[in-house]
Design goal:
By secondary structure, the chain is an alpha/beta fold. About 40% of the residues lie in helices and about 15% in strands. The longest helix has 15 residues.
Length: about 260
Amino acid sequence: MREPGAAAGIVDCHVHVGLTKYRPVEDYRDSMRRCCIDRAVLVQYLGNADNAYLERVVQEDPEVFTGIGLVDPDDPAAPRQIDELARRGVLGGVRLPARVRGDVWKAMDAHGLTASVTGPFTDVVDDTFLDVVDHHPGVHFRLEHLGWLRFADDPAPYPGFRRFLRLAERPNTSASWSGFFLNAATPYPYPDAVPYLRMCLAAFGADRLMWSGDWNRAGGTDADYAAAVAHVTDHMTFLGPDERDRVLGRSAATILGRVSWV
């Protein structure tokens, strides 16, 4: 296990906490301590546009947590809600599906917020989403879970994933290495993910790649969470030491975190 405190430390870029569907932050703190996680980006879970709990957690401990909220993109009030979220200044971004068009992106751009982009993969690689990225340079687009790609749906020569990698040509994008337990067709340490990870590293560079251990997975244990760190440190042998540090923490701290984190 990598020791905490080196560089930016280990930062999990995608953690769900809550009072109903997901476990509360106190449970996550316990796992952080046991698994040597230094900081985390709390991301609102789909179906819950009430960000009050997330904001309270971040306000109470901004040295450890930052957050990404959620709005209903189909609600006509969504642009105004984004304005209000930005004015409160607690959360640094909003979780949005790639299919969204129109004034929601204008509001995001006006405030320089991060968009944590959800799938499905076909929407992420669609040409119209590429246009959204190009026309909103003030937004940073963090592409969740390798674009929500199920690896078995895009075998070699990887035509879909090569379309996804066009997004790496845009400087206002990054990608998260997460969701393997759902998207891989092979068990841990997910050897079928390796070709996609190598291509992703070559296209984005380690400065725009970030890790999550999927703490919130159904039935997940601390052993699973610790293994998710070891997935990077012990099994991704194509990463150099500096690249591992960036993927495990520094990139998320720089792109999604706070100034004091870096």
